[in-house]
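pls read this stuff:
=====
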Amino acid sequence: MARATVAENVQMAAVARRRGPALWRLVPLAFYILTFTLVRGDLARLPGGVADLSLHLYFAAMGLYVGGMFFYFAFFAYRTEALRWVAIALVAPGAAIHLAAIIFRGFADGHYPLANMYEYSSMLALVAVTVFLLMTIRWPVASLGGGAALLLKIHVTSMMASSGILVSSFVFAALYLVKDRSASAKSWLNGSAIAARLPSLETLDRLTFRAILLGFPIWTFGTMAGAIWGEHAWGRWWGWDPKETWAAITWIVYAIYLHSHSLRAWRGRRTALIATAGFLSIMVTLYAVNLWIVGLHSYAKGAG
């Protein structure tokens, strides 16, 4: 009876190993279908609509990057080889789509696509992703991702960088609101030299959007890295610590911004106000939580 049980267990494990990779392969396939759905309309309008195609390709690449990042983190935690290959299957097409987005942007704007900070940062991100991808294929990341200290450094650096980028988006959003307010005849800014010297509303909206488009994925990456480090340090991925909670709230606010900006009826004053709310949420995350709310991340002390 015991021998039969052992044999059955071995047979079930073998079946599970055969089914596992097949099930994992469905995850990249789902991402590929979503990507095609996102850009299908733009492809049908070619050669027109190149600018929209470039933007949607960028969104598709970002979605694949986020999915790949999730599976890389899962691989760090569980050391399951299938997770690493799912991550590669998501990030590699993401890099190719990212490159296509940059190329189509060059065609849309009629210039070499490294003419401004947004384009330069996008290319920098593509190069970083490509180098990381090649290194993880050549040398499995298990040997690189085991150190909790490294995860903490990645988490802190990512949150600091993304905070700076997202705060800069608030500057553009605030200037947008000033410029928009100056158009009202009842405003004291109407006809003022300050408002006249500001860039156009379209330019300020575009700068706000690009800063958030760059900072949001880095904030996402830093939050997920913090969750992985928290599992190493405190034995749980998420504990609703005040800092964790407000980081999640900030992420939700900027996700709402990106969704709202994709709707033409919402672009402008509404999205600028959402970007302002995101800035206030960052200030709470970085300062109010640290100084006044007791938690694992804060400097405040409890009553005892």
User: Anything to note?
Assistant: Residues 133 and 139 are 10 Å apart (CA to CA). The chain has a mean pLDDT of 77.
